Amino acid sequence: MEIVTGISRMREISRSVRSGVPAGREEQAAGEGDGKTGRGRGPAGARRAGPRRLGFVPTMGALHEGHLSLVRRAREVSDVVVLSIFVNPKQFGPAEDFERYPRDLERDAVLAAREGVEFLFTPSTGEIYPPTFSTSVEVERLSRVMCGASRPGHFRGVATVVLKLLNIISPDVAVFGAKDFQQWVIIRRMAADLNLDVELLLAPIVRETDGLAMSSRNASLSPAERQAARILDRSLHRARGLFARGERAVAVIDGAVRGSLEEEPLARIDYVAVVDPETLEPVASLSGPTLVAIAVRIGGTRLIDNVVLGNEKIAPRQSAPDPQLCRPEAAGRKDENVP
Amino acid sequence: MEIVTGISRMREISRSVRSGVPAGREEQAAGEGDGKTGRGRGPAGARRAGPRRLGFVPTMGALHEGHLSLVRRAREVSDVVVLSIFVNPKQFGPAEDFERYPRDLERDAVLAAREGVEFLFTPSTGEIYPPTFSTSVEVERLSRVMCGASRPGHFRGVATVVLKLLNIISPDVAVFGAKDFQQWVIIRRMAADLNLDVELLLAPIVRETDGLAMSSRNASLSPAERQAARILDRSLHRARGLFARGERAVAVIDGAVRGSLEEEPLARIDYVAVVDPETLEPVASLSGPTLVAIAVRIGGTRLIDNVVLGNEKIAPRQSAPDPQLCRPEAAGRKDENVP
Fold first, then answer.
1. CATH number of the domain where residue A223 is located
2. Residue of A nearest to B76 (CA)
3. Mutation test of the interface with chain A: which of B193, B196, B197, choosing the one with the most A Cβ atoms within 10 A?
4. Do A53 and B42 touch (CB under 8 A)?
5. Do B287 and B265 have their domain in common?
6. Does residue A269 belong to any structural domain of this protein?
7. Contact between chains at B51 and A45 (C-beta distance less than 8 A)
8. A139 and A7, same domain (yes or no)
9. Has residue B337 been placed in a domain?
């Protein structure tokens, strides 16, 4: 595994992988053409390894089994996998946890290498956001609701950095996790709206044995808070159960989730949303696929979770996680995100 | 010349040109590889025309010699030229001239074909902005000053559509005109900030015989207004003259330009800006390259013009326009945009 810190080196690698022309040979190969060609798309007959499909997994590091499941999904559909680690200051609010967000590059590098990641991209904040940086990308309505309402500017920061990373790495396919479902909806909308030439894939939520969705922020929980955090999955389980028994009224599903969350004294509800999984607009009833998404504060930690009811396609059944990296009891849990 | 209306067809052409794999053969060529490759980057040994460099000129149509000079510039640095015509509703304010902006695709197609353009891309508004469209790109400070102050949202619309077009066409190089200098600064900033992998070139302003910068909007001027419009170039000429004689005080240059414009009764100044040509911030003196930019209303028509004093690199000396398309007297004017 190569650790790549520079943007230009990352771009060079991407061109090399995707064109099949070894890095550093682009100029030479191009020179064999008509003198105008470039960009590593060497002419026919140049020595080429053959183009390979490039998969990309963007993360903020503090890797856990959830991230590694994204790497495995990327691996299934590509030849070479780039994993990026960049704690993006622009997606943290001024009162948020940017400074204390967990960082452990050494441990992350071990996990990524063990997973077979070919390139670990860890750009510096200064190279991603030089002093003159002044561009932002906004997905207008989708960014204002749910997590966007409590975290103004958050999704602008996410969209901007994801667009930058996609442009730097130029992958054939990028994989995102379903825990950040709103992020997924926004990035997919941005990619379509801006005509990005990349395939985007969603991978299902990976959970701890007791159901808590894996998150780098779980490490901030005290033991008591960690116990209390189980209420997120439990409340969604209640929604799944009601839906499975035929309940289709929004008020009933919403009320059951809220009621469940309110049973936990350490939990403070930020929002419970019962919405269309494409538009994130409230639904009148659960007649089609419906996203039930929640954000809850447990002590000083804000946690999110969600389930899509009524459509396996949107949040497909999860494959078994690697028992090496998950506690063995978790390997049997295959029902995440489906009713 | 092929007229291309669909985004997917345009993308197919771009891939074909840049990869050297003929359009429609991508799947087949890719199939000869390892089964995972795609996107028209066929493996070594596939039948290839050889990759060619793709040049791009974005326009809103109503083509004039200014646009055609951009095509010629693109031709100098690429093998295949795409010219786009799209009157972008998002860059017009509600009270602006979107509806009455001149449109004449037939005439434009003749001019483009005569210039040797290989592909004329004329997407529909509905395909560029489908009903779900909700993404915008903003270059924050640069978009708020000068034309951005009088036209709120204008540069957000410009940046968004240019990013879309660059993503659809994926050119090696794109050429912009110096008349819209602020647009150039913003697009260059956006491309750098978003890590776009494209070369951007600036081509100098092309002027009518009497100095008026060519613009599709000039057609809206009455004969009296057309006469009055000469004041824009004349006022900049005064700035050039002062600068050539060693004047470096902002107040003197600014005052001379304003004074000149105020001599024309039909002209109403929107702004006169004496600014840094990279940051668009006011300069303290003309010690370095300085942009003098003006916007003036003549009747109902808003016209802009500019000159960069003190740096030929930023706005290089213009090559002679094609006498076929310009009035012959114009062919001798080579001093635009230089002091």
1. 3.30.1300.10
2. A36
3. B193
4. no
5. yes
6. yes
7. no
8. yes
9. no
Return the active site residues of B.
Answer: 67
The span from the CA of B139 to the CA of B157, in Å, is 11
Do residue A227 and residue A276 come from a single domain?
yes
Digit-coded pLDDT (tens) for B73-94? 999 999 999 999 999 999 999 9
Q: Hey, is the C-beta of B27 within 8 angstroms of any chain A C-beta?
A: no
What gap in Å lies between CA A106 and CA A109, rounded to an integer? 5
**pLDDT tens for each residue of A184-212:** 999 999 999 999 999 999 999 999 999 99
CA distance B80 to chain A (A): 11
Question: How confident is the model at residue A291, as a pLDDT?
Answer: 98
Which phi and psi angles does B85 have, rounded to 5°? Answer: -125, 115
Kindly report the nearest CA distance between residue B195 and chain A, in angstroms. 6
Indicate whether B312 pLDDT > 60: no
Furthest-apart CA pair in chain A: how many Å? 72
Q: Which residue of A lies nearest to B159 if distances are taken between CA atoms?
A: A135
* pLDDT of B317 over the 80 cut: no
Range(s) of the domain holding residue A223: 216-311
CB contact at 8 A, B178 and B203: yes
- Residue in B223, B236, B222 with CA at minimum distance from that of residue B178: B236
Task: Take residue B20 and report the two structure tokens written for it.
Answer: 């050297």
Q: Are residues A7 and A153 in the same domain?
A: yes
Same domain, A161 and A221: no
What pLDDT digit, counting tens, does each position of A200-249 carry? 999 999 999 999 999 999 999 999 999 999 999 999 999 999 999 999 99
List the single residue in B with minimal CA-CA distance to A135. Answer: B139
- For A194, residues 6+ apart whose C-beta sits below 8 A from its C-beta are A137, A163, B135, B137, B160, B163, B164, B167
Same domain, A35 and A77: yes
Could you tell me if B257 and B165 lie in one domain?
A: no
Distance CA B213, CA A174 (A): 46
User: A181-193 and A154-169 helices cross at what angle (nearest 10)?
Assistant: 60
| Residue B195 sits at the chain A interface (C-beta within 8 Å) | yes
Position B209 in a domain: no
A34: contact with B, CB 8 A cutoff: yes
Residue ending a domain, choose from A154, A181, A203:
A203
Q: Tell me if residue A67 is catalytic.
A: yes
Our count of domains for chain B comes to: 2
* Whether B62 contacts B219, CB under 8 Å: yes
Domain boundary among B178, B203, B228: B203
Looking at residue B10, which CATH number applies to its domain?
Answer: 3.40.50.620
Quote the ipTM score: 0.87
Distance CA A230, CA A232 (A): 5
Q: b or e along A116-133 (b: 16 or more beta carbons within 10 Å of the residue's beta carbon)?
A: ebbbbbbbeeeebbeeeb
Answer yes or no: do B137 and B269 share one domain.
Answer: no
DSSP A318: P
Q: Does residue A336 fall inside a structural domain?
A: no
